[in-house]
Amino acid sequence: MRFLHTADWHLGRSLHGASLIEDQAHLLDQLVALAREQRPDAVLVAGDVYDRGVPPREAIELLDETLCRLVLEVGCAVVLIAGNHDSADRLAFGSRILRDRGLHILGHPGPDSAGLELADAHGPVRVYPVPYAEPAIVRHRFDQHDLQGHQAAMQCLLEGIWSRHPRGARALAVAHCFVAGGTASESERPLSVGGAGAVDPSVFEGFHYVALGHLHRPQRCGGNGHVRYSGSLMRYSFSEVDHDKAVLAVEMGPDGACSVTEVALSPLRQVRRVRGLLADLLAEAADGPGRDDYLMVTLDNREPVFDAMGKLREVYPNVLHVERPLMAGGSHSSAERLDHRRLGELELFEAFFRQVTDEELTAEQRAAFVRIAEGVRRQQQELDA
User: Fold this and answer.
1) d(CA 214, CA 221)
2) What is the Cα gyration radius of the chain?
3) If you ran DSSP here, which 8-state letter would residue 73 be given?
4) pLDDT, tens digit (0-9, with 9 covering 90-100), for 331-371
5) pLDDT digit string (tens) for 120-175?
6) Between 314 and 354, whose confidence is greater?
7) 3: β partners
8) What are residue 239's phi and psi, to 5 degrees?
9) Mind giving me the DSSP string for 271-297?
């Protein structure tokens, strides 16, 4: 049995103010072409389909077009779950009507989710969608008043699945979470403050394959390699310039063993960093490929440069950010060298507190910040929903 595993499309996202919808459409065309070529039994989309709970019109239209092509033209099933960026209710609208056409969307986890059963010559394969869920939502929906943390929430969801799983059937999960040991990047919204959102890969023991979403770098988690992130559709930050984006082609054998092949995606524009003197960079543009790429430019000029962004955009139209680390030649303090793009909310607040007070946060102050930030996050998710 064959599957295509993808995740983290983030339709409607922008990069430093530049809309990426054209780039996303270009990549989804390749996904549809791959499905048409390989004829998988299902396409697995592991959450963060949209970039925010209320997506822009063009993002909704692109998702509608892509799903119609996969389900109606190619004729393969699609299993799609909500991620932490999605509004579960909006994403799952009409899902019961669409199920009979082969489009299986799950927004909220529920105790009655039986999964999708597929079959080949070797017997059934049960595909279980496990959308992202805050521990508070799992507590409410499963009546588990003492449940705390993402680890316990995932265990609760999977215990319900295993209680109904047919004996002898192969099992595959589609989930959206942060698995401990995974490598994150700056473009991912943290699931919790202070690292409390991690799930140990051992909770997925028993599944023959786990199609994960949330982390944007393609990677394996755990020891045997059957728990995997496909990575995001494209590079969504300049911290991802070394990421090779791909769709995972998964082939499951009669015993559940899976072989996985990364199928590379070719972006319309790359996301790159370039560095040098302004005059050299302008001269290189005449012959250099990738003039239309999204660029972060680090200028090594020590002297002042008037309208550096304007000059660069005359030859590189998609320069999005310019850095001047050597400006004025002086040494910078550690606070001035701080790269805020690589820090989480707690780390940013710690750096701010340290700069303002010249003191470190106490354990009590850290706990208070985490508590307040989590409360704000829950309020924002309620507004998005």
Assistant:
1) 13
2) 23
3) I
4) 444 444 555 556 678 888 888 887 677 678 888 888 888 88
5) 999 999 999 999 988 888 888 888 888 888 999 999 999 999 999 999 899 999 99
6) 314
7) 42, 250
8) -80, -10
9) EEEEEE-HHHHHHHTTT-S-TTSEEEE
- Which two three-digit tokens encode residue 206? 């028993």
DSSP 2-45: EEEEE----BT-EETTEE-HHHHHHHHHHHHHHHHHH--SEEEE
- Residue type at 289 in one-letter notation: P
Would you state the structure tokens that stand for residue 241, as one six-digit string? 């310039």
Burial class (CB in 10 A: 0-12, 13-18, 19+), 141: middle
Residue 379 is predicted with a pLDDT of 72
Q: Is 198 helix (H, G, I), strand (E, B) or coil?
A: strand
Calpha distance 9→216 (Å, rounded): 10
DSSP per position, 334-381: HHHH--GGG--HHHHHHHHHHHHHSSPPPHHHHHHHHHHHHHHHHHHH
CA count, 13 A, side-chain hemisphere, 281:
25
Average pLDDT over residues 44-71: 96
CA–CA separation, 235 and 231 (whole Å): 9
- The Cα angle at residue 8 between residues 5 and 13, in degrees rounded to 5: 145
Question: For position 85, what pLDDT does the model report?
Answer: 94
On whether the CB atoms of residues 265 and 247 are closer than 8 A, the answer is: yes
Element (H, E) at 261: strand 258-264
The pLDDT of 96-106, averaged and rounded, is 90
Separation of alpha carbons 189 and 85, rounded Å: 8
8 Å CB contact between 194 and 148:
no
Q: Is the distance from CB of 80 to CB of 105 less than 8 angstroms?
A: yes
Evaluate if residue 193 carries a pLDDT over 70: no
Section 11-31 average pLDDT: 97
3-state SS of 89-151 is HHHCCCHHHHHHHCEEEECCCCCCCCCEEEEECCEEEEEEEECCCCHHHHHHHHCCCCCCHHH
Give the Cβ contact number of residue 10 at 10 Å.
26
